[in-house]
Design a protein that fits this description.
alpha+beta, globular, three-stranded antiparallel beta sheet, 1 helix, 99 residues
């Protein structure tokens, strides 16, 4: 079961699994991020508003993903799905990483 959460003060809404915890209630999270984690596993859902890169859209998405997983020193990193919307500057990337 999923629950709707307001992200970034209600600017964006997302359905998050009911058993995931809002990490901002446990520790400080950067203003550009919304982070949810499962209390018994290492699974997390991270929303991150990123800066503009002067690269083609697909490459910019991949560059941001690489930066995020490299910062966490992930040993496994894989982009599973990348959607470039026909509406300019609305992109979605689903990836997996493991430390």
């Amino acid at each position: 079961m999923n629950e709707m959460h307001k992200l970034y003060g209600g600017s964006i809404y997302a359905y998050i699994p009911a058993n995931f915890v809002d990490i901002s209630k446990l520790r400080q999270v950067p203003d550009s991020q919304e982070v949810f984690a499962h209390p018994a596993t290492d699974q997390s859902i991270i929303f991150d508003i990123l800066e503009y890169l002067d690269e083609p859209d697909e490459q910019a998405c991949r560059s941001h993903f690489d930066e995020i997983v490299n910062d966490s020193e992930a040993k496994i990193k894989k982009i599973e799905k990348l959607d470039l919307s026909p509406i300019k500057q609305k992109f979605s990337l689903l990836g997996r990483s493991a430390i």
